[in-house]
Recover the amino acids of this structure.
């Protein structure tokens, strides 16, 4: 991969004219042209990110059915030759039995037992994906700092295409698990998109531009699972084969969503190759234009004070702040992702929610989060005072939502005739809080990381910190939280029940909020 990105980067670099030659025969460009170019790049990144996240979210609701299909197909072979799936399911069943031996929950029926086994195995696959991203994210960031965002992004897209092809031809669980492994190790679109946006935006407009990343997430998590479920109904059957280069290849039962995923990723790759310019050296190549834009752009008093304070901070202080933001990101996502993952467990066990009802609940969260991202968050005018405020309110909102979910098992049953029963009010109040949390916290923490690594405030040569590496480490910490949070939360849920699971989660979130208030939140004064 290093050789591949080096070759692509070398071609991009040769095509990029030096700043001195570009400015020798022309007058200084006006600030508006730079802003229009920057906005165009942000739009390109946004469209590509929507395609990428749709491809990522489409398989999410299919995990249980995919695994169930593999179980049915491999059951006839497992007694004679154990497979990866049979060994993994044996581990999951042993773990589930151990957890329920300490549990105070009602015994499971055979049908429910099979469902929980599939859900736990789906959680393990999700954790595998997140663990792969935890490992690879810092390296992708460092490579993008050295060779540029565009070549690393295109190289990672090749890995995503390979992952989709492996799913398409996954005739047993081992191949499908390999596709998830390859996908996790090559998924760099989100962090590289954030790095590209950071490269081309000024601190004044960055928060609003980064909010588009949250909009893309919300749109994808609203539409992707529904599209996946729709295309999954177009099952082709395992008896179908296709001929490739004279060889008969068996395709997966859910080849239609796999093929749609491959098409989406192909469109994204082609679009990025044709439309996305290199952004890594954007400000270096157009330094004069940056100065003109900075001189003409209106700044708030809070922005000017924050920029002056950043210039005075030593490299060691900036490093300490970045590490603190990484730990906050890990802690927040550890508790929040655990609550997200077990939410459908809760609605199933308490109210016997169907897949359609759970889909409506998750769709409500996604649509509301999209509206908040596109409206409220993007309209936060202050580049540095807005994100700290959003982080603080988002974390405390998450705390309140977790408290509501902890109380939910004790407020009565869901009324089939009334939308305003206590259970409905508590559940959808918590869901509303989750929508606000999804639209604010991670986007705002990302903006704060970008401020700490912005080239405008890194005038100390020895302390220069590159966007890609810093954002890679930041995302890596969050992915570790996403990998561990659902596993730990599920175990607590099985052993002690939902009240304890969400109560402990709320306590953990209160600790994160307290850490923010005593740490970064206290250091950044919001006027």
């Amino acid at each position: 991969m290093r050789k591949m990105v080096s070759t692509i980067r070398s071609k991009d670099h040769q095509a990029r004219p030096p700043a001195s030659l570009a400015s020798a025969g022309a007058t200084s460009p006006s600030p508006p042209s730079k802003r229009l170019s920057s906005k165009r790049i942000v739009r390109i990144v946004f469209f590509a990110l929507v395609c990428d996240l749709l491809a990522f979210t489409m398989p999410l609701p299919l995990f249980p059915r995919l695994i169930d299909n593999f179980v049915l197909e491999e059951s006839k072979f497992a007694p004679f030759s154990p497979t990866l799936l049979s060994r993994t399911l044996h581990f999951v069943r042993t773990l589930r039995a151990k957890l329920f031996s300490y549990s105070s929950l009602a015994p499971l029926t055979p049908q429910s037992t099979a469902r929980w086994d599939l859900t736990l195995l789906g959680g393990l696959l999700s954790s595998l994906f997140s663990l792969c991203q935890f490992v690879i994210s810092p390296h992708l960031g460092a490579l993008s700092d050295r060779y540029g965002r565009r070549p690393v992004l295109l190289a990672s897209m090749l890995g995503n295409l390979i992952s989709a092809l492996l799913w398409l031809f996954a005739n047993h669980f081992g191949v499908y698990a390999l596709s998830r492994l390859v996908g996790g190790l090559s998924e760099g679109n989100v962090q590289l998109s954030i790095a590209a946006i950071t490269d081309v935006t000024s601190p004044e407009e960055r928060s609003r531009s980064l909010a588009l990343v949250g909009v893309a997430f919300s749109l994808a998590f609203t539409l992707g699972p529904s599209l996946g479920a729709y295309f999954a109904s177009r099952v082709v059957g395992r008896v179908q084969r296709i001929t490739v280069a004279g060889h008969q290849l068996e395709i997966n039962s859910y080849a239609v969503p796999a093929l749609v995923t491959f098409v989406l990723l192909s469109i994204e790759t082609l679009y990025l190759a044709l439309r996305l310019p290199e952004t890594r050296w954007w400000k270096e190549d157009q330094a004069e234009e940056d100065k003109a834009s900075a001189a003409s752009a209106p700044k708030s008093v809070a922005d000017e004070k924050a920029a002056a304070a950043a210039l005075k901070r030593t490299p060691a202080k900036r490093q300490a702040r970045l590490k603190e933001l990484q730990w906050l990101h890990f802690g927040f996502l550890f508790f929040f992702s655990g609550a997200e993952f077990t939410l459908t467990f809760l609605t199933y066990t308490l109210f016997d929610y169907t897949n359609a009802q759970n889909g409506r609940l998750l769709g409500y969260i996604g649509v509301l989060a999209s509206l908040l991202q596109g409206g409220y968050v993007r309209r936060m005018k202050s580049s540095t005072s807005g994100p700290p405020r959003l982080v603080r309110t988002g974390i405390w909102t998450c705390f309140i939502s977790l408290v509501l979910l902890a109380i939910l098992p004790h407020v009565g049953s869901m009324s089939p005739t009334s939308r305003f029963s206590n259970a409905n009010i508590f559940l959808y109040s918590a869901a509303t809080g989750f929508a606000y949390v999804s639209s604010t916290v991670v986007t705002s923490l990302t903006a704060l990381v970008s401020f700490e690594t912005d080239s405008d405030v890194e005038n100390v040569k020895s302390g220069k910190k590159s966007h890609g590496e810093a954002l890679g480490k930041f995302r890596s910490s969050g992915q570790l939280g996403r990998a561990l949070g659902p596993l730990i939360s599920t175990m607590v849920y099985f052993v002690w029940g939902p009240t304890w699971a969400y109560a402990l989660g709320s306590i953990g979130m209160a600790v994160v909020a307290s850490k923010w208030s005593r740490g970064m939140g206290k250091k950044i004064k919001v006027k």
Summary: The chain has one domain: 35-284+299-523. The radius of gyration is 24 Å. The domain at 35-284+299-523 is CATH 1.20.1250.20 (Growth Hormone; Chain: A;).
